[in-house]
Design the sequence.
């Protein structure tokens, strides 16, 4: 398989943090492939390098060596201008702490990626309202994040991660701040709304209760990928086959018309 | 992205208020203190500007400022009158004399003697009586502040305010009787003594007998003549100093600038206002950026360029700067307005707006640069940190 058929193709990625003389090897030769249409979960003990890896994949952190090719583009050798544009167009982010802008309404928060991509504010907000409707928050478009529950905030964040139709969505512990029920709802939403045959999802989690949403699960330890399993082995078989049949999922296309 | 920057700024009302208040304080100090300073300095020459009619002042060559009296002989008046281009030239006496009040106490007064015939150089505003009443025997005009306070008759009850002098009351000036025929309003000067106007010849009779008593010769230039040119001619033919009104004002002003602690004192308070304002506003603005660093990080991760972030921070700085400046300048103007009838000196020329505007801009640029450097160096990867 050539690297361009992968959504993400990482080879021997090395990242060492140097904080005042103390060197921490966070990624020690990571090899990982993520296919188009795949929902990949990344698990492993605390400090094993999961967040560092998705930061490199998302193009917000430069590795020291090795290559990480995302949709055929090697981010390390990209100019910072191009890298910004690449992120703006292709990457959606979901965080454990939601990271919504506290003084913007739900609709304004969701519209930010479109505005970064140069869309007019009024158009962006109109589109944001329609995406909020799809994540079930049509009634709360003017609410500030502080006026929403954790689950609702994460749904706003998911709408924000999706609105510009990015090809890769990276999520770091998206359900860890939520109770079990809400976490599963958020995952259902991610899976239903975000999954698409031309899009990949990487979700870092240690929340075993959501493993069954994965197509494959990569386990990391000490800066390595130690094993990659098809999800059925770790969780329910229901979702295991989906990696092979991404078309089975209703495509959700938000490309600007 | 501009609306996001503005919402971010105003999202935290407390912080926003703090930043604006810091800048308001800074611009208030940087406008109000210089306004008082300029007002005070204008007092150094207000006696000169009060005397409107003549355009040239002639005096001893060694005079350094308006209150530095070095008397001339009366004959100098006739020499000046003889110079071509002089429309008229009038004598003026200015000196400090002791007045004896009705209760027997003494008060030093600033006595101005005006040409007996023309009374040129009189007070700018008469509140009671007429300037011509000076021609009545023993007539003097006193300024309202002196009449109310230092020359006033002692209060009937201890601690009460004195009864103001009024037309018809009398004083003694060096054992000569003087009768008040008018009350005038004069612009305040540095000299806090009461001002007494009288005629030149009567002033000479009040003054201790000396050979020279002529303080100034006030000159009007003939129409069509250049006053500056005439001052040169007067200097050349008499050896005296001759200044146009503006020159004499600036001579006096410069004297006070260079020989008193006033500029340095105000300079220090303006500088302190600047530093304190810069510290408060700079600090709160920088803190505001630090607290919003995660938000900037999220925007950066989502693909916002440094240039856009820089513009957002600049916009925030310009917004708080403009608001703080407007409030500070507005408060200063209000202060000046409320104090307009008080003893306080206050002068607010438009140039002062530029001065404090530049000061506030400097503070904002300083605060913004600190914040911008922080945001430019920000690693977007912080967004995944807990
Ligand atoms: N900015 C940084 N500077 C220095 N060291 C860092 C930095 N970020 C992470 N590390 C170190 O790198 C290693 C990997 O960190 P990383 O955050 O990727 O782990 P993780 O698998 O996401 O852990 P967790 O499950 O606790 O989130 C850890 O030892 C961590 O202390
Ligand atoms: Mg982590």
Sequence:
């Amino acid at each position: 398989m050539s690297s361009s058929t992968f959504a993400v193709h990482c080879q021997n990625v090395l990242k060492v943090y140097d904080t005042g003389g103390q060197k921490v090897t966070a990624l020690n030769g990571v090899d990982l492939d993520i296919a188009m249409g795949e929902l990949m979960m990344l698990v492993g003990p605390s400090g094993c390098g999961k967040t560092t890896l998705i930061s490199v994949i998302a193009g917000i952190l430069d590795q020291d060596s090795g290559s990480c090719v995302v949709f055929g583009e090697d981010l390390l050798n990209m100019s910072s201008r191009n890298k910004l544009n690449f992120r703006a167009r292709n990457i959606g982010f979901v965080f454990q702490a939601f990271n919504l802008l506290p003084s913007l309404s739900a609709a304004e928060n969701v519209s930010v990626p479109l505005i970064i991509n140069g869309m007019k504010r009024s158009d962006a907000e109109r589109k944001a309202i329609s995406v909020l409707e799809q994540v079930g928050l049509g009634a709360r478009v003017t609410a500030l994040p502080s006026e929403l529950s954790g689950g609702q905030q994460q749904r706003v964040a998911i709408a924000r991660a999706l609105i510009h139709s990015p090809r890769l969505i990276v999520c770091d512990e998206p359900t860890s701040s939520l109770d079990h029920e809400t976490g599963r709802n958020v995952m259902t939403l991610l899976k239903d709304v975000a999954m698409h045959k031309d899009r990949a999802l990487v979700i870092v989690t240690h929340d075993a209760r959501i493993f069954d949403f994965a197509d494959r699960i990569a386990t990391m330890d000490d800066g390595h990928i130690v094993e990659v399993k098809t999800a059925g082995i770790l969780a329910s078989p229901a979702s295991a086959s989906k990696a092979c049949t991404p078309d089975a999922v209703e495509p959700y296309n938000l490309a600007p018309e | 992205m501009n609306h996001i920057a503005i919402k971010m700024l105003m999202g935290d009302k407390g912080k926003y208020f703090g930043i604006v208040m810091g800048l308001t304080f800074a611009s208030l100090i940087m406008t109000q203190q210089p306004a008082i300073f300029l007002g005070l300095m204008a007092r150094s020459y207000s006696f000169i500007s009060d005397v409107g009619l003549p355009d040239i002042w002639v005096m001893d060559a060694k005079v350094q400022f308006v209150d530095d009296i070095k008397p001339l002989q009366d004959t100098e008046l006739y020499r000046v009158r003889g110079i071509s281009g002089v429309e008229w030239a009038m004598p003026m006496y200015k000196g400090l004399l002791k007045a004896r009040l009705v209760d027997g106490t003494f008060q030093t007064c600033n006595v101005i003697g005006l040409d007996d015939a023309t009374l040129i150089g009189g007070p700018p505003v008469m509140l009671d009586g007429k300037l011509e009443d000076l021609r009545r025997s023993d007539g003097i005009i006193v300024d309202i502040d002196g009449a109310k306070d230092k020359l006033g008759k002692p209060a009937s009850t201890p601690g009460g305010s004195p009864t103001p002098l009024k037309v018809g009351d009398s004083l003694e000036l060096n054992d000569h009787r003087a009768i008040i025929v008018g009350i005038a309003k004069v612009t305040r000067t540095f000299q806090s003594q009461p001002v007494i106007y009288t005629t030149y010849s009567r002033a000479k009779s009040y003054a201790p007998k000396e050979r020279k008593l002529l303080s100034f010769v006030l000159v009007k230039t003939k129409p069509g003549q250049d006053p500056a040119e005439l001052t040169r001619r007067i200097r050349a033919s008499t050896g005296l100093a001759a200044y146009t009104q503006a020159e004499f004002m600036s001579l006096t002003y410069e004297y006070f600038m260079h020989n008193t602690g006033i500029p340095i004192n105000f300079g220090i308070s303006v500088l302190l206002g600047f530093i304190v304002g810069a510290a408060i506003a700079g600090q709160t603005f920088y803190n505001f950026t630090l607290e919003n660093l995660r938000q900037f990080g999220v925007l950066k991760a989502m693909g916002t360029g440094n240039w856009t972030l820089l513009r957002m921070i600049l916009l925030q700085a310009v917004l708080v700067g403009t608001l703080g400046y407007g409030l500070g300048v507005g408060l200063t103007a209000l202060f000046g307005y409320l104090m307009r009838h008080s003893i306080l000196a206050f002068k607010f020329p438009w140039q002062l707006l530029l001065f404090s505007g530049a000061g506030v801009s400097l503070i904002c640029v300083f605060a913004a640069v600190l914040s911008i450097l922080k945001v430019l160096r920000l690693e977007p990867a912080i967004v995944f940190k807990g």
Notes: Helices of chain A lie at 50-57, 80-90, 106-116, 121-134, 150-162, 180-194, 231-234. The two ends of chain A are 33 Å apart (CA to CA).
